[in-house]
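re: ur question from yesterday

yeah so i grabbed the chain u mentioned. its 409 aa long if i counted rite. heres the sequnce exactly as i have it in my notes:
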Amino acid sequence: MLIAHLNHQLHEREAQGLIRQRRITESPSGPHQRVSRDNQPARDLLAFCSNDYLGLANHPVLVQALADGARQFGAGSGASHLINGHSRAHAALEDELAAWLSPCIPQAGALSFCTGYMANLALLTALGDSNATIFADKLNHASLIDGALLAKAPMQRYPHGNLAVLARQLEHCTTPIKLIVTDAVFSMDGDLADLPALLALAERFDAWLIVDDAHGFGVLGAQGRGSLSHFNLRSKRLVYMGTLGKAAGLGGAFVAAHSTIIDWLVQTARPYIYTTAAPPAIAHALRESLHLIGSEEGNQRRTQLQQLIAQLRIGLTTLIEANPTLGWQLMASSTAIQPLLVGDNAAALALAAALDAQDLWVPAIRPPTVPVGTARLRITLSAAHTADDVQRLIKGLTQAAANLIGAKA
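ran it thru and got these structure tokens back, copy pasting raw so excuse formatting
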């Protein structure tokens, strides 16, 4: 019965254009990758689908640091942080991350996690008890949604970016603790939350602002210190989650907040307490990543990324304006995430396939990741891309557009 039920569900998903497929990368992370799928021979693709925004995932300094960390600390941690898995490498990384965020969060402490998903589950379940209410942007990442659903606190969702609705919700809230929860950079739209206005609401209504900066850490702000730095924010009411597998090039995540909040997470956050600590070699290498992010090389990589974003937006805006019948829309984003809204699931898949035929790898994003009717290509840029790479993508989309218009004629 179970197998029959699941097969029926899978067939329904396939009919709706919602089946996802994995590819196998045969080479290190980077814009140019050797990729195979469905037992077919591997091909060389130009990829615009990685979150390696600064191009550090295959940086020789980090590769060497990871190897050095393994030689010094071994391959694994052996246990959870509260047993014997908390190494000197973990402790040193957390000290550096706390210092990294201290300009924005007074008396900051930091706690490392294996993934950003675990960090968000930990945060919301540990802070969202029966004395709290969670207020969440409707476009928050799945990990924030799931964390809120697992928490004992009730959740109220507000329309994306609608601070007037949020203000009314906060005004009528009667619980003593109020938690405003938001992405900083929204992962499927690429836009930024109005963090200054959200913090002002937190101050006005005696609330706390939990910020998931997965796609801003390393990219935005002075020396890549993230979205809080980008907006020059400083408050004890800020609780910050940053991931370390995107711009930082390695893996893991962390929470930075007032040291009392960090102490509470150590004692109560189940995704932290009941899991094996990440290999200390990764923590060791992440310290080198922080140094790279904050260095002049990091500044140069961020400048390169901004130049590529501008180049892509100019090229795609010109393409869209020249072909209005396609109905494509370049969404409003100033970040490395540049979504091209197509609308229909099948149309998004067809466009991704047309690019794949030109050895361009851009994923089609469909429901439930995005709302029904807003399927899109999620183009992500990296500082490791070149201007020629971006121009090749623009040409590929131009060719795909011409073919679609020709097919309709």
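noticed a couple things. Residues 61-294 form a domain with the Aspartate Aminotransferase; domain 2 fold (CATH 3.40.640.10). also The chain has a mean pLDDT of 96.
anyway ttyl
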